[in-house]
Amino acid sequence: MDPTQTTLIGLRDAIAARKVSATETVKAYLHRIDRYNPPINAYHEVYDDLALKRAADVDAGNIKGPLAGVPIAAKDNMCTSYGRTTCSSRMLENFRAPYDCTAVKKLEDAGAIILGKTILDEFAMGSSTENSAFGPTRNPWDRDRVPGGSSGGSAAALAADLCAGSLGSDTGGSIRQPAALCGLVGLKPTYGRVSRYGLVAFASSLDQIGPFTRTVADSALLLQVMSGHDPLDSTSADIPVPDYVGELNQPLTGVRIGLAKQYLSDANDPVVAKAIDDAVAAFKKRGATIVEVDLPHTQYGIPTYYIVATAEASSNLARYDGVRYGHRTEHPEDLIDLYSRSRAEGFGPEVKRRIMLGTYVLSSGYYDAYYLRALKVRRLIKGDFDKAFEKCDAVLCPTTTGPAFRFGEKTDNPLEMYLNDVYTVNANLAGIPGVSVPGGFATVNGTKLPIGLQLLGKVFDESRLLRLAAVIEAEAGCSAQRPKL
Amino acid sequence: MPTAADIKARLMVGMEIHVELATRSKMFTSAPNVAHPDYFDAEPNSLCDPVVLGMPGVLPVMNRRAVEMSMLVGLALGCTINRKTKWDRKSYYYPDLPKNYQISQYDQPLCIDGSVESPVSDQPGAATRTIRIIRAHLEEDAGKLLHEAPGGFAIDYSIVDLNRAGTPLLEIVTHPDFDSAEQVVAFGQALRNICRFLGVTEGIMQKGHMRFEPNINVVIERDGKTYKTPIVEIKNLNSFKALHGAVNYEYQRQIDEWLETGVVMKAGAKSTRGWDDTTGSTFLQREKEEAHDYRYFPDPDLVHVVVDDAWMARVKAQLLELPLAREKRYIETLGMSVKDARALIDEPRACLFFEAVLAAGVDAKRASSIMLNNLAKRANERACRVDELGISASQVKAIADLSAADKIGSAAADDLIGLCCESANKDADPLKLAEQRGLLQVSDDSALDEWVQQVIAQNEKVVAQIKAGKESAIMSLMGGVMKLSKGKANAKVVQEKLRKALLG
Questions:
Q1: Do A311 and B93 touch (CB under 8 A)?
Q2: Using the 8-state DSSP alphabet, how is residue B42 labeled?
Q3: Which domain holds residue B393?
Q4: Mutation site for A-interface testing, chosen from B29, B52, B53, B59 by largest number of A Cβ within 10 Å
Q5: Stretch 328-357 of chain A: residues touching chain B, C-beta under 8 Å
Q6: What is the ipTM metric for this complex?
Q7: pLDDT, tens digit, for every residue of A304-357?
Q8: Which of A78, A172, B67, B478 sees the fewest Cβ atoms within 10 Å?
Q9: CATH H-level, domain A8-251+436-476: superfamily
Q10: What are the residue boundaries of the structural domains of chain A, listed by start?
Q11: Is B417:B399 a contact under the CB 8 Å cutoff?
Q12: Cis omega (within 30 of 0) for bond into B281
């Protein structure tokens, strides 16, 4: 069998049944990486030797677990005690962490093999990977188009079968949007479900690690392994982790699917609108009730998000000062010169823009008008969802208004790029889980481009969310489709 | 220009006090805390981990013990403990602050609205006055920036030691309730005693365990009008001498400045000054115009601190009698001298040992005598604390009982105390030790009579003097008997026998 052309669970089972060895698996993926990574630029760094050594350990029976031998890619903002953790930034170009990101460690403890680290928008700030200091990642479905962002490298790596599953982080849609644009399942768990320890912070109250997979079942498996309380992250929830994989098979009865007019605007591509209709029909066919819900504060999501996220980012990124690690300017004249030139040289334009925005909204005299007000609106947005979830179990909506856009299409106007997150940011502001599932394809100039549907659920209700996602997956039937490289 | 003779001036001081808490680990990580005695002598930059260094992706985790210690101090200062508080980030760039923000508490401090009785001076029996506490909040300390290399070598750059970075720091802020440098110092000392009694800090001033920042201005009356001089904050005073000097210097300086310029206080016009120990004067550090915008906002990496009833009760159970009340009780109830009482209060752990001795049933007079003589002497010799000598309270009680029953003399008691201190066996029975070492007194008549007769026979001259009326010479004969008995004769009985034999 070709280990690179199956599902994550399929591959896991094949390795366990010794139909294919972990070593063969890793070699097959490394071979594909050699061939396809240069044009796609999904990986920034690949750990050939380490991966092969771990594969040999799996084959020798020294490493066991529910993910034994499964090759995974991690976004390059997750610290590992091997290799570098760059955040696709000049600032951390040579940074080596002496510790491991908890989520990555949990996958490894379950037997997974980390193949390498993937490109992102610098410090996860962006929606296209065009903000990477090490070049953008290209969408495997059309290399003239973006893979989405900020976890574009992880999405593209999986879409191109350069790994069997991958990790992203989602602050305003950075898993769900690239999943949609690359034809994958992308899950942002409830805030607190997965530890943030070792994830380089962009906006701490919004960041959450989650998986990219080909199937909903694969997503359930990775979520199950990664979830749980971490004593090193005070904001990780001390709530038991359900058997997400096992519960996938539980029947859905009396399901209520919510539709919100705020997400069904004319701006949506007709293909997206049709995919929503098809999903609604599929849910109805299975006995679900469709209810209309109102999320009146949705339109304030983007401005609220860009205040909260930049405020936190301006503080989180203050530590990159050239004093202890990271980029340091040469021959600084004095302390202030050391700070300002190290940061001017180390950060790209989008990161600087957000640091300035965030610094501004927290400044004395502006705090109340911006940050404090944004926190209030954030509560209203959360209140919208609380109310909606009294009437429904999940909200069905698009992940993005349309398929992947071309490189450079939105780089001239940061605001237009920000609006790309319009359907995804509110889940982060509310702390609720969201999953993007492949919903079909748009054909643009003869090229097939994936689009995604999104389900938003109650906090810690991932189990039900995944079961609902499986309905769309079965109906759309596109999870087995792969781009022609 | 008005002159000093035309005015009436009154000093007004509010205090900010930073206390380094002696938890084992730091405020937000498990790295060891330099303010804990086990780590006092740690090599520079050896008490670091990724959290202390502010590395990417690491997260703070709150030290609950530090919160408890702060609650204890808050309760001792009569504060209300906020049942729900949060953590905020205070942003500024400095190389000793690895994250370039400090985790602190901005608008919801752990402790608020307290008041405490403080002596107006350190004179015995000084009156007290009420000092109102605005707040006490918890934060993390910064590291240290050094401008010369270890050993005092000159360097043309700065180096940083992050051992102190992340040490739990309690900041206590008072109302401007002080009007003399003596009061300020007495309060600082009282607060130090409280914190040391509660076991929340070692309170070693030279190590910066307590740092004082007085906010000073002067209220001046002239021709029936009142003027207030601009408020000055003196940073980082870490000795009572400096505190005293800085407050007094600033008082005079502000009066002089007002006489010269007439400049008065306006909202927000607080300048910052430093204290030069060698010249005994303050110097300007920062005017208001240069003040930072700290951009406080709630730290999203930490959750709210919720103090529930059970936690509150557990902390309250750790409260103990505060030093001022304790000193009063020692003097008034136990009849101790002010000097003795203060000597005990000054060393909280020794004082608690003293309480244990009392609790074991030793009377106060004998207990304080053993503490302040026999034990203090040994502690001094060994450069340790009384409670570290190795003797237990029950051993002290047994020795005190032997003395009270006249079974041992004072020299033997001291020997026994020494033996107990040196013995590895904390349960060693002092009576058995006394028997083994032959320290029990001889009160047996025939033995004593024999020694008495022998001494009388050998000292005809002295005997004659005594018989002639010089009674005090009996002491010399007693010395002879003690020598013969190798110190074991019961002195009281010997004296009676000598008197009876010579004076009838």
A1: no
A2: P
A3: 321-436
A4: B59
A5: 335, 339
A6: 0.96
A7: 999 999 999 999 999 999 999 999 999 999 999 999 999 999 999 999 999 999
A8: B478
A9: Amidase signature (AS) domain (3.90.1300.10)
A10: 8-251+436-476
A11: yes
A12: no
